[in-house]
Amino acid sequence: MRRKSSICIAGGGSTFTPGIVLMLLENQDRFPIKRITLYDNNAERQEKLAKACAIMMKEKAPEIEFNYTTDPETAFTGIDFVMAHIRVGLYAMRELDEKIPLKYGVVGQETCGPGGIAYGMRSIGPVIEIADYMEKYSPDAWLLNYSNPAAIVAEATRRLRPGKRIINICDMPVGLETTMATILGLQSRKEMEIRYYGLNHFGWWTSIKDKDGNDLMPKLKEHISQYGYAVNTEDFQHKDASWQETYTKAKDVFALDPNTLPSTYLKYYLYPDYVVKHSDPNYTRANEVMDGREKTVFGQAAKIIENGTMKGNEFAVGVHASFIVDLACAIAFNTKERMLLIVENNGAIENFDPTAMVEIPCIVGKDGPEPLAMGKIPTFQRGLMTEQACVEKLVVEAWIEGSYQKLWQAITLSKTVPSASVAKQILDDLIEANKDYWPTLK
Ligand SMILES: NC(=O)c1ccc[n+]([C@@H]2O[C@H](COP(=O)([O-])OP(=O)(O)OC[C@H]3O[C@@H](n4cnc5c(N)ncnc54)[C@H](O)[C@@H]3O)[C@@H](O)[C@H]2O)c1
Ligand SMILES: O=P(O)(O)OC[C@H]1O[C@H](O[C@H]2[C@H](O)[C@@H](O)[C@@H](O)O[C@@H]2CO)[C@H](O)[C@@H](O)[C@@H]1O
Ligand SMILES: [Mn+2]
């Protein structure tokens, strides 16, 4: 019989928490659980979801222990895995990350450009704090982190807590692979064998084959050149308008290099003028999420608590939930599953900085990820990735050293920003907005 794991979900008040808990319950046969603990530093927000999760646990898996807390010792003692999805500064700060750059005609986005840099400066300290709680209370546990911006957080964990059991992950590749499977008429993305390289939210597929080795790229290219990743399914129609637009715009990203299939967020770097033109500086994605997902999830939780049952109010399970269970399973039971993870390059991409945190396929077992060699990459991608990896490194250096100069350099270097003077204006506004979260910059 498989050993039962104890899980701490850090960011218990996240809109994704109920979906993760539900996914964990649905996978008891392959990933049995002893205890689930929710941890957050915002007791009030967490309790609204935790009370509904407690009802769900009682109805679906009464044998699993469940609790929620804001106390680190209670949260991090006796656990095997921490699944972390914290949002430092909540949606209120995301809104500023998006709106401040837009004021200067620059892309305003959660993880890309100056907004992503600002969010990175907020996330580094608290994610490291979670790693340190784990070191203190459960030194053998694994941290599976998907708190954003994952690229900057990954570089920070590499610099500040090297050699620890920390894996940074993102659901964007698996989300797009699910769409590719739909385009190909396959039941599951797992019927595909892929090759991919890049940075987080900044990558390209170079090969998609079926399990018999047949090349599936031609069919995908034909679709993507016309429709991007837009598909004619109910699921796609239900995506928010901004996501539908992002999926569709991938056709123009693809046009730049028709040898590869791009991740959608490259649009922010390759078509920033288009993105800004199609943004509403008074109503950004943060507003869309606050009016949409946040209201829906917290509204459902309130109904479950009021009714005392989750019947009629099932939570939705996002694509990343199953990915996280796959990853935890791979480590707990040495499954050697092939997964896309954010890891130190260390030669896997031959002609790229060995110290950069790259997103590449890895074989995952009980000792963690073993990256697969992706060979040499073309000049176009190497140029883009070099610039972006240096942005991410500069942000982490700025955080460690408290350096205004390095953060100004980071924002200036971002492909989304037109000049050092614009970068400086954005930076000065971001410093003011983030004074409760960033280290003091000199
Ligand atoms: N890597 C990926 O592909 C991926 C996919 C989806 C979401 N995410 C990330 O997951 C996170 C959660 O997203 P959301 O939209 O549900 O946000 P949310 O604001 O609903 O939830 C985040 C929670 O984190 C808590 N939190 C903030 N700082 C904390 C700290 N220092 N310690 C403990 N808890 C803290 C907040 O109180 C809040 O309850 C974000 O970082 C988001 O970007 C990542
Ligand atoms: O704007 P949000 O908060 O809805 O999402 C931001 C996150 O977007 C990515 O995840 C996507 C995924 O790529 C897409 O395929 C679909 O399934 O929705 C997900 C978001 O719900 C991204 O990977 C995350 O890092 C972002 O936080
Ligand atoms: Mn992501």
Annotate the secondary structure layout:
Layout: E1 5-10, H1 17-26, E2 33-39, H2 43-60, E3 65-69, H3 72-76, E4 81-84, H4 90-103, H5 113-137, E5 142-145, H6 150-160, E6 166-168, H7 172-184, E7 192-199, E8 202-210, H8 217-227, H9 234-237, H10 241-256, E9 261-262, H11 267-270, H12 272-277, H13 285-307, H14 319-333, E10 337-344, E11 357-365, E12 368-371, H15 379-401, H16 404-413, H17 420-433
Helix pairs in contact: 1-2, 1-14, 2-13, 4-5, 4-13, 4-17, 5-6, 5-15, 6-15, 8-10, 15-16, 16-17
Bound molecules: nicotinamide-adenine-dinucleotide (NAD), the ligand O=P(O)(O)OC[C@H]1O[C@H](O[C@H]2[C@H](O)[C@@H](O)[C@@H](O)O[C@@H]2CO)[C@H](O)[C@@H](O)[C@@H]1O and manganese (II) ion.
Ligand LEZUNG72 is lined by residues 110, 148, 170-172, 175, 285, 289, 318-319.
Family: Belongs to the glycosyl hydrolase 4 family.
Cofactor: NAD(+)
Domain Glycosyl hydrolase family 4 C-terminal: 196-417
Estimate the helix proportion, in percent: 40-55%
| Biggest pleated sheet | 6 strands, parallel
- Tell me the strand percentage band: 15-25%
Q: What letter string, H or E per element, gives the SSE order?
A: EHEHEHEHHEHEHEEHHHEHHHHEEEHHH
Q: Which structural class do the helices and strands define?
A: alpha/beta
The Rg value, from CA coordinates, equals 21 Å
Number of helical regions: 17
Query: What small-molecule ligands were found?
Result: nicotinamide-adenine-dinucleotide, the ligand O=P(O)(O)OC[C@H]1O[C@H](O[C@H]2[C@H](O)[C@@H](O)[C@@H](O)O[C@@H]2CO)[C@H](O)[C@@H](O)[C@@H]1O, manganese (II) ion
The end-to-end distance, rounded to whole angstroms, is 56 Å
How are the strands ordered across the major sheet?
3-2-1-4-5-6
Mean pLDDT, all residues = 97
Topology, number of strands: 12
Shape: globular
Ranges with pLDDT <50 over ≥5 residues?
Answer: none
Binding site for Mn(2+): 170, 201
GO biological process, one term: carbohydrate metabolic process
Cofactor: NAD(+)
Keywords: Cobalt, Glycosidase, Hydrolase, Iron, Manganese, Membrane, Metal-binding, NAD, Nickel, Transmembrane, Transmembrane helix
